[in-house]
Fold this protein.
Amino acid sequence: MSTRRGGPPRRQTLVGLWLLLSGVSLLGGALFALWLDGLLEPRGPARWALWLGSLSGGGTILLVGWLLEQRLFAPLRHLQAQLARLVANPDARDDSPPKGWLQGLGPDLVRIREAWRDDRTRLATARTEGARSAARIRQELEALLQVLDTPLLLCDRHRRLLLFNPAAESLFGDAPGLGLGKRLEALLPAASLHDALRQLPEDGSPREVLVPCGEHWLRAALRRIPDSQGETLLTLVDATAAWTTELSAGATLTGLLPALRRHGAGLTSAADALSHLSGTDNDELRRRLAHVVEEEGRGLAERLERLGETLDALQHQAERLTPLWSNDLWAALAERLSAGGLQLTPVGMPAWLKGDAPALLEVLARLLERLAAHTGADQFDAEACLGNKRVYLDLCWQGAPLSEGDLSAWRGERLEALPLAPTLGEVLRQHASDAWGLADVDGHQARLRLPLPALERVGAPGPRTSPRPEFHDFGIAELPPPDAELAARPLRALEVVACDTETTGLELRRGDRLISIGACRIVNTRLLASETFDLRVDPGRSIPPSSTAIHGLTDADVAGAPPASVVLPRFRDYLGDAMLLAHNAAFDLLALQPLDSGVRFDMPVLDTLLISRGLDPSLDGHDLDSLAERYGLRFPPGSRHTALGDARVTAELWLALLPRLEARGIATLGELLALQASAFDREDASAS
């Protein structure tokens, strides 16, 4: 164990020395007074003077020590805590002024604080104009990221993620490799992708590669950003459905082609032989050739039918047939028709369907225009009815149903607003659909029905979640390379995961187990509010009421939660290459590494308790509550003694300690670990 750093002795040491010296002096004075009292046998005032003189030395030491503690040492500790808070957070609230013999420093401290704040205000004002423009660009970028449906990833020359958008988050789901500052290899480990990245041209020319991602195939378009520091943009498309369709359809077409050629050759040969027959002596041969022609023609017709079905399937399974919520479709259609004076009212229960929204809108709008002209109605109901694996879109009106002749003419109309101007019937066939008219049972209302593919999804679309506070951080590109020597890495360049655990009790070596893990990530000295880890764990044993009284978790709260053998590997994946940060980390490491877990956290571990003790060895109160009070940090209501709540405050405490470490000249990880080791006490591993 390292020796403790030089510095002022702890308050407990000083108090102990003071009490020891006072006690020894008083005891010696008392013994001396007893000896003189027995030797001289004074009486009256002389005896009082003897005892007072003998005890005056110890009493003076006791009184002077108490006076120094109240008037000097306690105000000095108070001043030290004030300066620590000021360094960590210049905008922290003002504390009570210095007391005792340091009371005269109060106005000077106020002047220093105000001057510091004035300087920071002037500096902030000077940056306002440039920051305003940067903020506008950032807002526009974030708005674009929110609405863009194409998944995007931007990585730096070291393949750390600088940017991703909500579409990418939806594509990858809960993948632990998705996060600012994380390596692309953790998200997409395919060797083909990284070979393509190494060979990308610098002029921004795109390269495409097919990348496996779980059970999906992604088509990735890669572009090096011109005139950059080696940043690369990846646009991703889930090509699984298209790839599967192409393979299945390709195999079918490959099998049909030889048969078509064979039937065609047979028909050609039979027709040629028939053309050379003459007279009546070849009737039997003519009958045989006619039979061959009939069989080959039937086989050719069957193969052509299968060919048509395959081509229809290719159209029906096209990627542009996407999930649609019927109410959204009706709303878009009603808005489009309102300019023409037509009114559309959705009725019935909405449903999910699959279709090409722009093409469907064109078809429905054209049909409603023709219906209005044919029936004279200007108000229509729109209903989505569930069928067997189909959703029927019905356009309803008061009157007689349409004839097949009218519908046949409408199917042949071209939709010039769509690419290549397909006919209305061709668009319906692309959706494996058609249109027909029917009358309701009451005889007063008629319908025009279009069947479309249904989805198994149920329920309305969920409410839009508020935009994440972070999808990009271009400052990550300025950080040292990931393979740089850890000990020499600057503190502000560290990727840190702050974590906290809750357990069934404090006796982790005697059977107490983990019940909750909470963590949040700090990248480029930025606390990422949304990149959190918060899971409960089934401890395999009951939670004592004494522990529930602290963290509030009961057996019912962890019932059905995954065991530690499942949660701990997921947490290790979430950590990635980051440093682990905790308050009293020795306890949390015991909780995170039970003997039967098989998971080891072998990265450097930072401990805010030891860091604070190393910075201020003469101050009392290095527990999380005291430090939160000292640095002006706040626990949100109900978050104290929850794993994620304590992890967030630990992360904020780390950010508050950074400027103090830099003020002491501690700028690298190696220097910080040396400071931390100097403050280690063996009892930390069992502290709560």
Remarks:
- Residues 204 and 224 are 5 Å apart (CA to CA).
- The chain has a mean pLDDT of 80.
- The longest helix spans residues 45-88.
- The longest strand covers residues 526-536.
